[in-house]
Amino acid sequence: MAKLLIKKNIPLKDLTTFRVGGYASYFVQVHNKKELLEVVDFAKSQNLPIFVLGGGSDILVSDEGFSGLVIKYSNAKLSFLEKGERVFVTAEAGMIWDNLVKECVSRNLQGVECLSGIPGSVGAAPIQNIGAYGQELKDSFLELNAFDFFENKFVVLQKKDCKFTYRESIFKDKKNKGRYLILNITLGLKKNLAPTLTYESLISYLKEKEIKNPTLAQVRNAVLEIRGQKLEDPKVLGNAGSFFKNPIVAKEVLEELKKEYKDIPYHYSDDGKAKLYAGWLVEKSGWRGKNYKNAKVSEKNALVILNPKGKASAKEVKDLADQISKDVYEIFKVRLEPEVQYIGFT
């Protein structure tokens, strides 16, 4: 334990993109399995709960903080293994996700180009089953290595074990809360393959730019440009990106909504259900650009809640989100679920 610096009373707001939240009783960065086992022993000896922190881009930490040990896994190594036309890419959990995408695109490896610009770490990607512009992590995911705190052992989880669905996974199951620390993930990407384009706004953007047969690099640049137009930069204004998941409803529910809201945007999924757009629902509920105490809904994108002046409390952000959800339900009878994870709230 002598080589590991375990810090006390660290402000978590400095480690999250929302820039809100209280203090962690203890905080430590680990770089390998040996160090991880040491800090797990320390936590057990002090009877401390453990929270694993990634890039801090998809969480809202309570004002009370976290009374336990926060672990940040910082190994950011990357390796490639070619087998025929497939390349197996293994990225350590501490790597910045977009750095992984950038490197894969530069090697002309197809499968993650539409996931460009998503903030956060590689280790957080499976938790949310991150997705954008027609791609999801699960499309190229093969397996991951993790530490199971419940069983006190290292484990390998295959794709089927992770139970990926839209913005969900085994890691978000309540019974598995705090169970795993992801060490690395392995993706199966394809060499020299043209991008698969299915998302209408991305296709339209490329057409407007008169790019007929886009390369992976052109698709990545297009995604980054679109994201820049639609989303707020957390380096400028504190936020966690899209705050709510797009709700999925039965076809019958959609048909009822269309009777009153003929312009409601939607997209049918493979199972016949309809995915609505949370940002549209929030905007039509009157919240776009509105303030709530020191928190605010973005004027650029109603799906984003901001800490515009760095003065918002976590309670103010959550109260705003709760009020938005309440209003959307009262108007549309559709329930919004947060995509952002709440940490330390009772």
From TrEMBL:
One of its GO terms (biological process) is regulation of cell shape. Residues 20-192 form the FAD-binding PCMH-type domain. It is found in: Cytoplasm. Pathway: Cell wall biogenesis; peptidoglycan biosynthesis. GO terms for cellular component: cytosol. This is UDP-N-acetylenolpyruvoylglucosamine reductase. Keywords: Cell cycle, Cell division, Cell shape, Cell wall biogenesis/degradation, Cytoplasm, FAD, Flavoprotein, NADP, Oxidoreductase, Peptidoglycan synthesis. It catalyses: UDP-N-acetyl-alpha-D-muramate + NADP(+) = UDP-N-acetyl-3-O-(1-carboxyvinyl)-alpha-D-glucosamine + NADPH + H(+). Its cofactor is FAD. Its main location: cytoplasm. The keyword Oxidoreductase applies. Belongs to the MurB family. Gene3D superfamilies: 3.30.465.10, UDP-N-acetylenolpyruvoylglucosamine reductase, C-terminal domain (3.90.78.10), Uridine Diphospho-n-acetylenolpyruvylglucosamine Reductase, domain 2 (3.30.43.10). Cell wall formation. PANTHER family: UDP-N-ACETYLENOLPYRUVOYLGLUCOSAMINE REDUCTASE (PTHR21071). The keyword Metal-binding does not apply. Pfam families: FAD_binding_4, MurB_C.
